[in-house]
């Protein structure tokens, strides 16, 4: 197997647009956006590769100020480092690239905020994150359990993301929030395991607050599959699942997370060309805006 | 008037795709899907003819397992018998074809689950159903009353569907749920008649439960015009009407129906090309998945 | 069978937009546009009903002046009388309406320029035209022969248009130009009959000129199915057929027709919602502009 | 600076379609629709110029009867006067045209219901309204504060609409309802000023009722930027903002307004081509239907 | 490396639609369609995976009769065997699957007509074809040279297709027709090598006839990348390249090929969702119709 | 009137993507791209403001090598300086900004290649160009004459572009090539004046060669309105006009220009969102690629 040979920041592709308010250089920034335009294992509707550029372009449609958090991106030093070109037909090598890229960010003291691309990129990110944060806890916002062991013979499919993460995560702590689709055995596993928060309609934020009580200060990583949202507000995703969540539900989650120690996040599965109205990209940009603020605030 | 000459199952067109988990043959199946790609009287935006193929294709985007009912399509024997080609410019002959097709299903001991096409197909279906189930009760989920006597001189328009059904239904029992658009006289008729449940926001399922209490065991047929849903979750329909319902509302309806005797159903008015995001077709497929399970469970 | 009861001009629906340069009234006009938003028998992709409104709206994207004919719509008195609402599920009654509407135009000394809608409307129009012009000759620009005797049992399908016209046309003279799709027997009929011009690539206009030589002064009616054009310039049509014609080919046809006696025309099968770029509607509007000028010039 | 020279009703462009149930003439009408297809300062996604024609065309997809108000458009005399052509590159002159047009309506005793176009048109309308109604109160339904003093050097941008209105409104009374996006200073101004209702989720109608209590009988003007709605129900707008409102919220607002004295309104920022499903235009048409009824009822 | 374990025809997925006129079984058929919905290495715009289903569905929009060849699909026994599910993230294993599937067809005496999917699938097909036909000659219709040795480190990218084919093709005979895009070194290679036909505008068919003269009777395989066509007639492809060919150019190519021994073909790179008008899929279906006829005719 | 206060290169907005092969800095570059996302006077279909970003993003879909010119962008030093934010509602001030921006490029010894935006931007560019090149000759590729004196009272509409250029161009030499739409008086002016090349189908390049013979070495500026192309290859433009030109026609024009002294160019009126297939943007990018090469080659 070929190995990725990313070595420094100059290897990122910065020919594209940048997120509203970001800087192209990394001076004194504490948070960095990185796009990973990869959708190589997506089995239903591809196009998550266009997520990073759509989010960046449509970010100019919202304000830099967030009334909920009463913060302004213009007061925050963060960088948008560009995107990572990956070898689309080779899932293993791609994850290698992503791990290396995450490492480079961490070595430069940049909290990673990765924009997918499909969900499987999280496997590569987490592999690097846990070397810095061995007691990491993961939060998953998602419509799907992603706990399959394989998909058509592949272990690196986006349908296996959380299974792979569980295998390498030392703490084995993953809170799965809002899951509403999966196989019978995935639901059995989620229900039986003490690791998981059950999906209780309208009560996600409260349950999460309860669950996180005993983990104050622990490093937390959020992996956000945008199909957690209801298809009506997020039609631009590969596998929309009816019966999802709305902005108010996410706002409540933010309120919980802001008193915890968020050290990184990814936002995945925006497939912008599926939604020509653009409301999906704008929602994703608003999510990113919140997460930049949360990452900047945390220790 | 020419008469339809459908005689047996071999007359259905099976060149198209089939619903996830279905079989092409009818061995021991108790439930059968049948597509009716007809939109000949639709007066505003045509395209419901593409409903059956879109629902079948997009069914592969959801799982076979339903967490709410804790059932899996893979454990259910059901068939997808294909679609019925109809003479689009001749409404009367078309309804004749549909009646005959429904009869063929019933004679083969297959509970019909018909995918429209426009709402007027229900007239043809009911005509056959009531010969097998003379004490039939109908449930209508719909945004529109569909109680007009005629539309531009035509008695078989989709705007007259429930009027025609009322005329031939021996029990005269139709529960109209969620209606929010109609003429003044249609609303008067719905309000005055004891036959109808009033439209009470957020209380549909509870009212339905109450209404059905005295009808335990009676054969029930569900006609589901998908524009009952809010346009935000179901934009792909001919006449979207603001102020509709969401997945949770339908889940509550399922919970009521599952303790009753559902013997057939149709799901109509998906016009998939109007919604290029595909969320409408996926929602319709999830509705169909639930109904297959309800039909298989019932006596 | 119900009969249409159109009696006078006030029965047309004029709630919609009008063609660039037209007047809403009929004072002294010699030419009249009439929309027929009917697509009731279309078997593949419906939407021709939206043709009239799209052509009217997009007509404002071109100029009133035509450099080829050196004429300006602003110097021509023509009216746009609105559209005819038809009972979509009843092909027979619909054609009745169309015949009556054509009669009303003729009685008001207005040369008809009918905007479809699907091709079958021509059957209704011709039925009235030949009472005024018994020695009528027809020109057909089309990709398809339309010579089937029936389609799924229906004799009034748009696939049977020219067959029906041939049956009622006293002269039996129809020049079919540019046909490139049909059944084997349709091609046999076209090739064997002396009635038809063969389809010779790039030579249509010249062959037409030759064919029309002996018919100077005879009343000519043009039925123009827009799928005659290549799908690249006219994607917005129900059954696009590769290998079609371009604007220059039509300009050459105009040059031939302008020295003959055009007494009416229809332009059918624009299905504008299939082409979100709008180039199909604009091309149709430019065709209409030419035909208004040709009709105004002729005796 | 050139001055607009609109003088009478004959100067409006009436080549387009009209709203369902409207009349082209103004006999005895008390309410008049007027389209203003202007989007000249829009900074993100243009296309609001297509609002008036889309609302008119799609109005035929809903009924004339409103079950909430138990009123029918067919019982109301209102006119649709057509649209105002404006010089797109010249914001100042455009507002002049709009003021003059509003004046013409008022002089003809027609309550204005103006369909945008972008939000900046309100500045021109209000300028004329306050000469007739010096004690006017404004209601603003909007996602954005629109209180900027300028945008890229322009004082007439749609982002400055309410700032300009405040400057000329004698009463200085503007109730801003549902605002969820703006700069930090805009939110400060809204929060500090007694002029504004705070944005309280789900409580808008109740707060409005309270706020209007002391203003019974005072003339009220409603400016409705359709991005107040959630992007899921109103994707067809230039700057959709996640976290908005639904039909039920608007229905509650109607219930409050109907016991007050509405003397005019505008509905702006529909950009219909952004939403090919058409649900945005249909929602806008239903809003217009309600407002025609409210305007006709009020003194 | 995992190995594909396809063994017999029952392993193909036949849940989807079939091509017009095809049979689901393989009795006595000499030609077989097979879909390969793979677009795993595509670097610009994915979606070729949807090619097979779009071509099948839209095939019903054209006739079974071809006037150019004077043949009718209804007189030809051919089968549509369904599609091959492939592991999208693993290019090597995918090609293995494709080779095995091709072998199965050959062993069943079925001439393969493979519908892509992206161009790289040709590598897998050819690998099997040359074991049956060691003196095979290839024809390539394409806009791009596809002669790169690698793309972002991958040797199995669709940009390397012809390079890989050249390496394994014993005869080294590939006629590359219509190439108009590539690197400088690709053009150098094409120009210098005697293996290649130069791209001469409008003269492709004549040059091909000349080139094939000395190869009468030799087995010929056609690989047809649909971006050979001009983007105006084939917009639905991943990397459209201005300056391409039209239907008449392909008709001329058919005329040359029909007197040669075509033993297999693939038609790749249709990306149907990029072209909502559907003209790309219909053109592809018409190409397929021609190729079925050519394959059936050849020895 | 406010005055633009652009002073140096740092004032350009460089948050967006850059053209394939370009550099963000200006070191030793001789050619510079600049985007002007302005469509403020466009009267029919807006959206040309999205031209610059679409051309940049889609440039990655073509190669850097041009087989016709046998040149490679990778061997050319050119910069992409970003885009110019303009005050959309104020045409006069906008043109001022554009003049100043052009001046800055010229002072930095960068040959301007401006990407529109609508055609009126040419007025601002030419105003600066002629101070450096008083004997400038203009070439116009366009479907429309653009010789109106005003449009709805505005002198700066894109319909007046060439009229305004003529007024300020000292040489009065403008070659208008391919014009096929205009008013009667515009055609009269073009035909009568010796300044203009007549529009002769298929002979444009030859006529241009003839016309330019006596101007060897004279500075030439090309203004390219992309609606010169046929709508089938360039649907993504505001006012597509049937009967246009193809890639081969442009390639012939390039062959003429390459032996002349091109000192600047603009490419305007791409409205990319009108064409979701992307073929319009890709064609525009290929045009830009050619022009970069021509500008780099010229003295």
From TrEMBL, chains A, B, C, D, E, F:
Its EC number is 3.5.3.11. GO terms for molecular function: agmatinase activity; metal ion binding. It comes from the Bacteria. Keywords: Hydrolase, Manganese, Metal-binding. The keyword Methyltransferase does not apply. Mn(2+) binds at residues 119, 142, 144, 146, 225, 227. The keyword Manganese applies. Its cofactor is Mn(2+). Pfam families: Arginase. Belongs to the arginase family. Agmatinase subfamily. This is Agmatinase. It comes from Prochlorococcus marinus (strain NATL2A).
